[in-house]
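Model: Ready when you are.
Researcher: Fold this.
Model:
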Amino acid sequence: MQFAYVKDNLPKNWSLMIMDSSKNRRIFYQDEIKSPHYCQTQVTIHPVIMYYNNRNTLVRDSLIFLTDDIVHDYHTIQLFLKLASHHLSKQIKTTREVIWFEGCQSQYKGRGTFADLSLSSKSRELNYFGAEYIEGEGDREIAVVNKAVDQAILGRKVVINSAQELWQWCSDNLATDTACSKRRFVYVAPTEIQRDRPLTEIATVKGWRGFHQLQVAGPYKLLTRRLSCFCPSCLIGQEQTCFNAEHTGRNFQQKCLQLRRKHQTVTDVLQIVKTEDCAPSKLSAVQALLFLRVHRVCVLHYVNHKIFGHWRILRNKCKFSQSTCTSFVCAVINKQIIAIS
């Protein structure tokens, strides 16, 4: 209901995005011999359906990602989302990205997805349908592709051996570009998907299955609500007067995300800043702090975390002018700094 409402009342410069996984497509041939029949190659097909207003017309823009990588995880979804957002930025200037996922944990509703969201732009928000798997618009896109490709293969019009060959055939035969409906195909090489991202490996978030609307509050901080709502009040950011407050819980609740302990080490940070000693403070040597560096001033925010065994190692490493913090090594993330004391 909320999805349909926001789709029909999509504000100007807002975009609506639906991401839905599907069953891998198997590679088969019309004149198939025994060995490929018993050792079938698979291709991942992942549609992303986008809606946005262009010249007072609601445009349905479909991106279908094809890759030989068949590991369905949040790393793959993050890359697809990044490419979809880049494509969207070429179509319109968006001020808000409203993304809808199904509730599948490994791809859409898990710790890694929450970490990626917290490290992204504040213009992005995630919403979840009630079921873990849904039959939605993405399934209709996949049905169109599979039927057309099957007919071409059985009619001996094409032989497809890989995701790249599938992408080429679909781009030549199934892509559309009209004023209100578009369909494009994107090939993603397996080497483009990066899975060595320790800063997205966070501890389990308590009650995460009950979150259905999430917004960005800052690095490793999310605003969560029990149910999604896009009533007239919520569309303009006035959740206090939400029409469905008795169901949604009215205001958003802030949740802090914490990195898993095995990744809270100096070698796992992305960018290390090393300088001289700082003036000591009353802060404990085993606290993790979040620092925001603005005009050479450190503003401290507690993360309620403890990291042991680094104090002596990290002495004489860092300095920020006009600060009173203890010695630390830090990683820069989106102009903010995660520091380990």
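Researcher: Now this one.
Model:
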Amino acid sequence: RLGPQIEAASPSQPAAHSAAVAAARPRSCLCRSCSRAGVRAGGRAGRGGERRGGELRRRPGSWECRCGAVVGADPAGPGRGKVTGPAMADNEKLDNQRLKNFKNKGRDLETMRRQRNEVVVELRKNKRDEHLLKRRNVPHEDICEDSDIDGDYRVQNTSLEAIVQNASSDNQGIQLSAVQAARKLLSSDRNPPIDDLIKSGILPILVHCLERDDNPGRISFETKYLLHHLLSSTLSVNLRFPPSDAVPLFLRLLHSPHQNVCEQAVWALGNIIGDGPQCRDYVISLGVVKPLLSFISPSIPITFLRNVTWVMVNLCRHKDPPPPMETIQEILPALCVLIHHTDVNILVDTVWALSYLTDAGNEQIQMVIDSGIVPHLVPLLSHQEVKVQTAALRAVGNIVTGTDEQTQVVLNCDALSHFPALLTHPKEKINKEAVWFLSNITAGNQQQVQAVIDANLVPMIIHLLDKGDFGTQKEAAWAISNLTISGRKDQVAYLIQQNVIPPFCNLLTVKDAQVVQVVLDGLSNILKMAEDEAETIANLIEECGGLEKIEQLQNHENEDIYKLAYEIIDQFFSSDDIDEDPSLVPEAIQGGTFGFNSSANVPTEGFQF
């Protein structure tokens, strides 16, 4: 018997129709929206044999639950109903939300393969965009609509030969249409035919259009835009434009009355120059420096000046070989002007240009010193911008790699007063560069070593030797070892007083063979210089575990290390009553057996602590 809310067959309907409707209803219909179930007459549902009728109402061709969901027979099997209409959409949303909580749950292989392909494509796009960002670009100008141009120039039906021929026409209308067609040709396809367009010979025509004074503004605008589009495309500039053809044209554009055209030419030349010393020297030989430097003036827009400074950096960048001396002489006065600029980007590029020049050798270092720029460079070590500090630290660090006289020029500018802040800087890269600078000072003469001591920088170096990251520790080891070579006895004794032995010995276990050898050299120098106090130093080394580390180094795979370790133990830690292990004796070097002259280079005064 049907429940009270299930309507009986209408008397007006045939009995066969009523029977068909009843038969279409499943034995047990479950509404997914509210979990109600209804059964046909005589059926059972629920627990304990309880009848549960009256939960569904009949509709033409289907059944409706109290909640409003329409329930029909589920073709997947008997005893279950399926929800259609709004309730089904809600349930699908719930199912999708639930699937998100499980990785790959409910996803077939085709879906996951498609998603992986989409991720790969996106990564490739990002990688391509990052590659493009490595090259300096200038903003695109807004292009005007072409609706006001007479005639409909159909790009797809126009050959490159026709475009080039029409671009050379004396008819300004035909010329304008040709330039527009070329521009549309580049922007109509994902892979525009840049190489074909360049090979067609349109580039000289575009340059000629810009040089003409009788062309209307629209032709000049379209020509500039097309030229910019060619310069800022995806491919490498020097691959698209053979330098023998393109560079002279770009140099002509530097004299254009249109400033944005000059800027685009500067940008293109900068990319060509930055591709290597050969391209750089070729562009220099065509006379790029003078017109480039002519743009450095107070009236130039800041974005243009940034590009000019960036090109100057590329002119100084490569050191194998370095730029011609004449070029350096031309550039240095401009750098002396730009180092006072307030724009951070211009200042950073200026200082990096100086760092590249000073990295080329002592001759270039002397040229930079003679320009008088060092007193303006040193104060930038305390600049508020980290990128300015980094560039300045590298530049002055390169200068102190030169002769003692060149190093003294930097010290005379009170450079060491900036280093307490640099050695405690939160950025480890700054710490490392600062200790590298000081390692070159301690490699100088004894007066320069004393300047480091007087500036109270030795305790800070030892602290970084102990607590810094490995790169900083490595530079600190060089600074200490250099001091043991260049310093006097009292200066080396000052190291001992600052407790340098324990952190110095701790580096004997690192995997970097060069660091281990530097530390062994430093310890050997200290012990040799100590003379009568050598036993005291040896005890300090033994107490901090250094002796055990040195003994283990006698088995090191590096020949220089195990020989030096054997020398130290044999000379300063061996006793007469201890038999020598023949297997630990290093092989003789060329010229005979090993000899040690502990009194060499040792001052006559005693070793004081």
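Researcher: Key takeaway?
Model: The radius of gyration is 41 Å.
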